[in-house]
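## Example record

The block below lists the input lines for one assembly entry, exactly as stored, with component labels intact.
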Amino acid sequence: MSHDEPKRPRVLAIDDSDLVHRLLRARLRHERIDLHSALTADEGITAAKNLQPEVILLDIDLEDLDGFEVLARLKADPITRDIAVIFVSASNETMDRVRGLDLGAVDFVGKPFDVGELKARVRSALRMQRLVKMLAQRAQLDGLTGLWNRAYLDDRLEAETDSAIRYGNPLSLVLCDLDRFKNLNDSYGHPFGDEVLERAAAILGSGRSADVACRYGGEEFAIIAPGTDLNETMEVADRHRFRITEIEWPDRPGVKVSASFGVADLTCISGTPTPEKLIAAADQALYQAKKAGRNQVVAADVQIWPRAATG
Amino acid sequence: MDQSPEPNETPPLHSTYECDPDLRDLVVHFVDEMDQRVEMIRSAFLSDDAVALQRISHQLKGAAGGYGFDSIGDSAARLEYDLLTDEAMISDLSERVEDLINNCRAAVRPADS
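Predicted structure tokens for the full assembly:
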């Protein structure tokens, strides 16, 4: 019961028999898990979405919907797709087991279950789940800088755009490009270039907690700023810009590194906002910043649309 | 005795977990609910409610073994199998139903510890 122990993994049991839930509760009492129960397929699918458990123990033979269908639905929804599902069933048919595993279940436990086996299989699924999560996260991180990568940026920007439109919240995007990066690489070598990327990334990634910093390309970065309008984001970007110019390079005294920034928010876009339009607007502003002499932050033109011409 | 209205020749069934401290209370509860369960089986059978009968036998098949009553689970499994596979009328299942009821009634509540 100590309060400093890490959060326990969540396990959701979906079974239409209360007898089974009681049994599971008693049998898994000493495991380091939080056990939740759902008595119907509908209840189970909803709980899986809300609870985001690491592991689901799913009864094959539910009354309202067959367990295979539940599994198919869990696997079809991106929110629940990666949950490890262990089938539990009184059916001894090999075909059922094959079908469940082929649909994406990680394991199978027969009913009535052997306690030791059940515990071991839950533990094994939890172990695997941790690794899967770690891998999934690795695949979305940039190897050099540790920031989110381009693939993550694309997904996240789409989700944030949808959400901003739905709730009427502001949303800004910053594009940042290190100035004359090719010259730095050519003059001081690639190891120094990598160091520049890492330290600039550390600054961009150390901003406000809601901001999402990504490595967008070679020496280009992006920051998604949810809930933030153009002016506020300009200030955020300018702080980053200033801190990058302040970096000292012990091995290369006298070297100055700077970056240019383009900022756009949803008000800079005409028509229905899309991630592509937001990126294009920020990119245009970044281009202006470069053209105007680098080491500065430029906002995309604010277009208010539709707008009547004023006299 | 022949006159006994509800002959029950099944010897008393003790849960294999009646001494398991994690399960003892659950087993007590499970046995205490037995009369109610038997009543549900009986009334489902008498009213030709195959769906209800199948549901009860299915649940017992899956759970009774977990409470340490394997023979109840086995008996329920036989009944469910016949319900699912046989084209037989529900009235022909009387032996299976009787067997399940007898097994259920033979379950013994763990002694107080």
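Chain A touches chain B at residues 16-17, 19-20, 22-23, 26-27, 29-30, 59, 61, 63, 89-90, 111-113 (CB under 8 Å). Residues 304-311 of chain A have pLDDT under 50 and may be disordered.
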